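Good morning C.,

I know you're traveling, so I'll keep this short. The sequence:
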Amino acid sequence: MKTIQGCTVVLGGEAGQGVQYIETVLVRVAKDSGFHVFATKEYMSRVRGGINTTEIRLHTDRLRAHVDRIDLLVALKTGVIAHLGRRVTEQTLIVGEQTALDGAAGFAMPLSSIATEIGNKIYANSVALGFICGLLRLDRAVMIRQITARFSVKGEDVSKSNIRAAEKGYGLGEDLRQDQKIILDPGQAPGVAGELLMSGADAVALGALAGGCNAVFAYPMTPGTGVFTLMAQFSHDLDIVVEQVEDEMGVVNMALGAWYAGARALVSTSGGGFALMTEGLSLAGMTETPLVVHLAQRPGPATGLPTRTEQGDLNLALYAGHGEFPRIILAPSDLEQAFSLTRQAFNLADACQVPVILLTDQYFVDSISTVPDFKGNLVQIDNRVIKTGDDYKRYLLTENGISPRGIPGFGSGNVCVDSDEHDEQGRITEDLDGVRVPMADKRMRKLEILRKMAIEPELVGPIDYKVLLVTWGSTTASVQEALIVMGNPNMALLSCPQLYPLPASVAGYLQKAEKVIAIEGNQTGQFADLLHKETGVAIKQRILKYNGMPFSVEELVERIGGEL
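The tokens, ready to paste straight into the viewer:
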């Protein structure tokens, strides 16, 4: 069993109180001080009030999982301790305003009064930030540099006031550590300096850029909006068309129009928005127009829990649209995969002329961690557009089902597409057996080449396993850490970055195991059902979660142990 060193800090307060600001600066200070970082948040669906918390892990190993354990809790508002429930234990060091302690054993710290002395109680969050840095012995100079960068646009006075507040807090943290002999040691993590610090949304956006994306369309919807806003920021320096459209139907149709004209367009949305795009998805299937959709999942049905997380939209992605047509569904489990799969999505859509759907979720896109630089993870943009001739046929019947794709104005041929059934030239037809059936068969023949191109699953653990845990997407990292904690030599993890079409090798992995356990963040085990349909292997043991929160490592250790 491997020992994992580190420290878990949780911040709790109401929306508008500056919890996100503390997180944003603290993760950068920790990283620049030489530590691996993982941060994730849970927040209520409101602009002001309620209780939001942020978990920040500083550690020696590269870990990217949510844990229940809290070493240091900084409570900025009454009710935070009760909100966190059993996660707060006797081992948790609790610090906060006297009123925020709610009678719990902890250290009262006059954040507001210190901030008021400096000039405004709004600086209380900077006092708290400095306190954490001092308690954890993070680099004071790095802290000052990060605060300066954060507030430089607001003027010198604001910047200096926040620095004074943070330095005051830093001293309080140092004093508490020394006077009470508190040891919170995040450990040492050499080599972090050259790494990147980013969120899942960052990785998807950068992957899109690396894939040649030059047009982005969206209608704002949490949690898919993060990728859209990042692409909008990139558009200031790069040649990218970014359009906030009037609704999701317009979004998908604009994206299809952009691909038809030769662009590489991205759509970023969430479940409710994607549901409105299903007619456009069918249009992509009929016209064989490439399409890349980032679908960031959240709990449904309807608005559900709009700021929480779930893996409940696999079936939506799998069966969306009327009629039958092929598609590709990808689901990254870490930041490297988010970058590489998004990048690959554009080449796959272009090469096979099918929709490619990238599934993430709120937990994944909003979490932040250190990651090795992506410099070695770049490939050539594979643009399959051809120059047309006078005899060009947009829907030429081919052995593998993929016709040469031209775009208007590039060559002498007419690029005719239509949402009705059509012949090889793209003209509407009512020839049922002579044209309709061959065209439908042509489109579905792509499935064979998609299966051959499918991204292989990843096996973590012994190759002679007896128990196989099957995951996809954001649950994978938590299961990986749970495996480390459990140290069972007979247990392995199979993570599937491509959910559909499944690579043929998946069946072999499942058939080899004595016991298979599916772990998913939804209510029914949607991927387990898909595996049964595609491989014939019925997975009866399922660990499922659908309360809007991600799996914690401790929870998985307990539930996997229960299944064994």
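Safe travels,
E.
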